[in-house]
Amino acid sequence: MTEFEPKIIGFLCNWCSYAGADLAGVSRIQYPANIRVIRVMCSGRVDPVIVLEMLANGADGVIVTGCHPGECHYMEGNLQAERKIKMLKKLISRTGLESERLRLEWVSASEGARFAEVIKDFTNQLRNLGASPLAGENPDKTILAGIIAAKAVAGASRLRTLVGRERTLIEEGNVYDEKVGQREFDEVMDGSIDAEYIRNRIHLLVKDKPMSVEGLAKHLGLDPKNVLRHIVVLRQRGLVSLDRIEGEDPLYIALEVS
Amino acid sequence: MLKKIGAVLVVGGGVAGVQTSLDLAESGFKVYLLDETSSIGGVMAQLDKTFPTNDCSMCILAPKLVGAGRHPNIQLITNAEIKKLQGEAGNFEVTVAKKSGYVNEEKCTGCGICAQKCPIEVIDEYNEGLGVRKAIYLKYPQAVPLVYTIDRERCIGCGTCREVCKADAIEIGSEKETVILNVGSIVLAPGFDEFDPNLKSEYGYGRFSNVLSSIEFERILNASGPYGGIILRPSDGEIPRKIAFIQCVGSRDAKIGNNYCSSTCCMYAIKEAVIAKEHNPQLQCTIFFIDARAYGKEFDAYYDRAEGEYDVRFVRSRVSRIEERPSSSNLIAKYVNDKGPVNEEFDLVVLSVGMNPPKHAEDLARVLGIELNEYDFCSTQTFSPLETSKPGIYVCGAFSSPKNIQESVAQASGAAAKVAGLISQEKGTLTTVKEYPPEREVSDEAPRIGVFVCRCGINIGGVINVPEVVEYVRTLPDVVYAEENLYTCSQDAQKRILETIEEHNLNRVVVASCTPRTHEPLFRETVRDARLNIYLFEMANIRDQCSWVHMHEPQKATEKAKDLVRATIAKARLLKPLPKPLINVTPVGLVIGGGLSGMTAALDLAKQGFEVHLVEREKELGGNLRHIHYILGSEDPQQRLTSTIKEISENEKIHVYLNTELVDVTGYVGNFRTTLNCNGERKEIEHGIAIVATGAHENKPTEYLYGVDERVVTQRELEEKLAKGDFEARTVVMIQCVGSRNDERPNCSRICCAQAIKNALKIKEVSPKTDVYILYKDIRTYGFKEDFYREAANKGVLFIRYDNENKPKVTQENGNLNVLVWEPVIETSIPIEPDLLVLSVATIPNPDNKRMAQMLKVPLTEDGFFLEAHVKLRPVDFATEGIFLCGLAHSPMFVEESISQACGAAGRAMTILSKETLEVEGAIASIDENLCVGCGLCVSLCPYRAIEKDEKGTARVIDVLCKGCGTCGASCPKRAIMIRYFTDEQILAQGLAALGRTPHD
Questions:
Q1: Closest residue of B to A17, CA-based?
Q2: Residues of B whose CB is below 8 A from A33
Q3: Is B224–A27 a contact, with Cβ atoms under 8 angstroms apart?
Q4: CB-CB neighbours of B59 under 10 Å
Q5: Structural domains in chain B?
Q6: Per-residue pLDDT at B885 exceeds 90
Q7: Stretch B560-575: mean pLDDT
Q8: What is this structure's pTM?
Q9: What letter does residue B983 receive in the DSSP assignment?
């Protein structure tokens, strides 16, 4: 049997990592031919939604590389990238897809060998992990549903606002001139990821057919009490409404949003 | 008088020469950039990291090199030296001898196949002899120009390179040529040479394989260096555990005639030790030093971190000798500490070699007729630090005195300003502005894509099945034309691309070849010549990131190449023409602060014909210079001040506003509008740039009985006494670092050591019998100021060291001042009863900086000084375009350094003011105002302050300030920001195509 060859998408910043990858070439340092590079000006440009889109479409791995901290051509775009990837990994881990399929690395323009090493290592890691459950003709439906929900989460304003503000709040301080503790922030972030992820899962499920709280709870493996809370929020946001009542069970359905 | 010429010769292609060239070329002058080697980049291209930010040196330098290499008004002349000079300032004729590299610079594509096949190995100078290169070679992988050179001395003439070069670029017959250049001015930036450590035979360099020079060690630290970034011992390839750094090798050394301090070695040794520890945390690093000269901005904080966080050991002792243990090749360092003689064993010894003047300094000086100083560095004066002894010839960088990168770069921009002042009337007379045909409107057309796949000789074609890729490409949607080329970058291929675009009515072009980092500009120009917008072009990198890295897997490489080209085409289908609008520039400068720096910057701008508003808060010009009565080795500063003020008042281009403060600043680069409060009256001015030169203050101390006993004074107060002639004292004690290098202000105030020595020498001059004691932590008389330290010691000034644990104690007893100081050598406290106690107090930032920073939207350091855009390469720029910085507002510095920076700020400002319009980059962010909710996240994330909220509360991009990084777009909660040329749709289509998927809804 031939060894499984993962497909990897790499987002490389123009100034450090892309230059580092070029240097690997100039130095003829060999590495596996699995990566397909997309050049962006800054690692901070990599939108979480696009990363999830790659995974949803069967990429076995996605790697984002930027300048080392303190060396960003745009001062701190790489630090923004770091916060985004951290959030993304948390989000991905909730979908059932292995969060190791996403990786962030710093590679400078003089680290050709390191670039090759990183790619070799990531390729091997993915070889051991095996094909993505979303690759091929028959993707795992549950995980795909999870990634689609994650995409909606990553594209909506709540988490994007939190991620975008994270560095300032922790390192520079908030509007009260207080620095927010990383731990305190992580609690807020984790809670938001959980809530938004489940809400989007629910929203996607009731797009297909009306479902009850109990049905949703069973499908998602959650406490019905929890599901009901999210239904309340979804109704407040005008995303879900009551479809009909069947016996004891109200059934909910997604609203068409213009 | 001869007619002035609008061209400049820059001698030396290191970072200083490159900066000068870029500033001049951007300001409308034709530049010839000459380097004696085969490529530009200088020493900085060899460095691994730079202090105090540990930036990757190549990462920050390479974009500048590429910029210089492709600038239409900079002509690189490599392998060249000056033979003769005729003419005068404004019109020189320079005869240049150019050695042939035997490679046609136009034809060579830099593919490197020649070097691969060359059978001759040569010691590699770039890697300091630790690796090998071939007899036909490129100095380093990122070299500019990307042209190979034959090392004639080593080449055996086998002709293999000529055989394998598909571009037909090898021209064995070509000989030395002579080039005559007609230029208005010359800037010298030949840099320095490393001190040859063989001359310090006691350290065994050259005899013991594990004794290295600091620059060799720099290459070892580098990831692309000879050991791939792993620190190894040259003797046995083992990883060392204990490294010693020995300072002042070839510096502060009367025996070898280098009395001066090389100014940079303390910091680079600390950096090397820190980086080495980052490579290998188990490593023990010891630095043997005399005085730790961490005198620059934030340097002491770096030094403290090295000692505290990185556990670098500092030993204050001069190593007398290194011996080798033959069995292990380990090294024994012999030195003396406070307990007596020590023999300590190390695995590796790094010699921190000093800076020598460039080898050819004497020849250069003779040919050009300029004076050198006693150490053969270029001679300059305190008040004209950028001027050589010959009018029209300027100097910057390490050639005038040993200095670090940031100071070299500031001087480089300063020298550019000086040149521009001399030949400003000739601006734009010799530069070429390329005319392009009007762009064809393609927005309504369906994509018609042409694809050019490069074989790059055998670099791509030898691995990837290029015909197969071309065949495949033809099957892809919207591709109407595809072909392969031997070299897509060759001149004839450009012609073919141009014709093909016309013939097939192409409206998108894709080239699959090497890296866009070097070749995108070339192809963009070609499509522009063919009437297409440059953003309708895209590249696929199938060489550097494919054929070269998968050389042994041709099939996989071919598949990958197809994927990469398919992905690029998918993006190309979605490309849109992007406008590059022009904005007008108000050719007027605003200089904030009327001290020496502000006046200098204002004069340098006015000399170029720009109108300048010079704003001073006090009732007179002069700032701190008003209190300086003597300068070591300089003319009378007060006379100079008077003549400068006179020059300002007589210059009709300069409008001086005294008793004036800034009230409000709005606008952006090219178009600022500032409200002033002049004596209570409001006034509005419009300007294109602003220079912050607001100075700093002498701190008023709260210790050592200052303000309690009138015999306790500051250095400045002592200087006033000396100047007025009312100095009288039998015993004077000076205490250094009062209020500096402590917990409150961790950084050094830089100028106080030399200031103390200056005043001590003056005391010895007017009252030779007076005893002078200087109590210090480190004496930081860097550069040539070291001579005055030696002179003071020779004249009997007594230097006694103290540290923070044993600070001097000052008391008043029976009406007498009593200073008790711990003498570490004899281990006792010595009492001194001075008649005068002089405190060398800290230089503190202007308290108004915070308000000013908010108004101008620029940042401050933790200490409260202004923070430049980049410590190394943009030392006088702010990140906000169009605002510059110089003098004490930047950090404490000497008069000549303030002047250099002020000229530098003027030089940077002129690159904007010289243009009637600024061209806005096309690949930038744009905000959909219907989607924006005004949350302000993008405003806070943008490092360039390129986004502001309009009156409706909607975010708006100031196009001219945006650099297109895209962080705002990837973060916008409403996804309302589009990053042009890297739109979500384009990136997504590219990614999906790479995965073999087609984009769905």
A1: B59
A2: 546, 549-550, 553, 556-557, 559-560
A3: yes
A4: 25
A5: 1-98+176-192+357-435 (3.50.50.60), 101-173 (3.30.70.20), 194-355 (3.50.50.60), 449-572 (3.40.50), 584-695+846-914 (3.50.50.60), 698-844 (3.50.50.60), 919-994 (3.30.70.20)
A6: yes
A7: 97
A8: 0.86
A9: -
> Which residues of chain A does B992 touch, with a Cβ-Cβ cutoff of 8 Å?
53-54, 57
Q: pLDDT tens, A179-237?
A: 999 999 999 999 999 999 999 999 999 998 999 999 999 999 999 989 999 998 999 88
* Chain position carrying tokens 């015999």: B711
- The residue of A8, A108, A174 whose CB has the most chain B CBs within 10 angstroms, and thus the best one to mutate to test that interface, is A108
Q: In angstroms, what is the C-alpha Rg of chain A?
A: 21
Task: Give the pLDDT of residue A174.
Answer: 87
Which residue's structure tokens are 């080495």?
Answer: B276
Q: Which two tokens stand for residue B12?
A: 């030396």
pLDDT above 60 (res A258): no
Distance from C-alpha of A51 to C-alpha of B988, rounded to nearest angstrom = 9
Task: Chain B: give the shortest CA distance to residue A243, in Å.
Answer: 27
A111 and B988: CB-CB below 8 Å? no
Q: How far is A198 from chain B (nearest CA, A)?
A: 19
Question: Per residue, what are the HEC states of B776-797?
Answer: ECCCCCCHHHHHHHHHHHHCCC
Which residues, numbered 108 to 147 in chain A, qualify as contacts with chain B under a Cβ-Cβ cut-off of 8 Å?
108-114, 116
- A234 contacts chain B (CB < 8 A): no
Average pLDDT over residues B91-110: 93
Question: Which pLDDT band holds residue B129 (cuts at 50, 70, 90)?
Answer: confident
Question: Would you say the C-alpha torsion B879, B885, B889, B890 has a positive or negative sign?
Answer: positive
Asked if the Cβ–Cβ distance from B229 to A113 is below 8 Å, we say: yes
- The minimum CA-CA distance between B429 and chain A, rounded to whole Å, is 34
Q: Are strands B809-813 and B816-823 parallel, antiparallel or unpaired?
A: antiparallel
* Confidence band, pLDDT 50/70/90 cuts, at residue B338: confident
State the pLDDT confidence band at A2, using cuts at 50, 70 and 90.
low
Phi then psi dihedrals of residue B621, to 5 deg: -80, 160
CA B619 to chain centroid: 37
What confidence score (pLDDT) does residue B988 get? Answer: 97
Which of the pair, B55 or B776, is modelled with greater confidence?
B776
Q: Which residues of B649-658 are buried (b: 16+ CB within 10 A; e: fewer)?
A: eebebbbbbe
Q: CA–CA distance from B40 to each of A139, B65, B66, B78, B144 (Å)?
A: 53, 7, 10, 8, 6
Domains and CATH numbers, chain A: 8-129 (3.40.50), 156-254 (1.10.10.10)
What is the structure's pLDDT at A175?
A: 84
> Is residue B620's pLDDT more than 70?
yes
| Joined tokens for residue B343 | 């023999």
In angstroms, the CA B522 to CA B494 distance is 9
Give the closest of A29, A38, A71 to B55, CB-based.
A71
- pLDDT value of residue B1001: 38
Mean pLDDT, all residues of chain B:
94
Cβ contact B994–A109 (<8 Å): no
Total residues belonging to chain A:
258
Residue B547 is given by DSSP the state I
Predicted pLDDT of residue B447: 97
What is d(CA A243, CA A245) in angstroms, rounded to the nearest whole number? 7
pLDDT tens for each residue of B673-705: 999 999 999 999 999 999 999 999 999 999 999
| CB proximity under 8 Å: A 10-69 to B | 14-16, 18-19, 21-31, 33, 36-42, 44-50, 53-54, 57-59, 67-68
Q: What is the ipTM of this complex?
A: 0.94
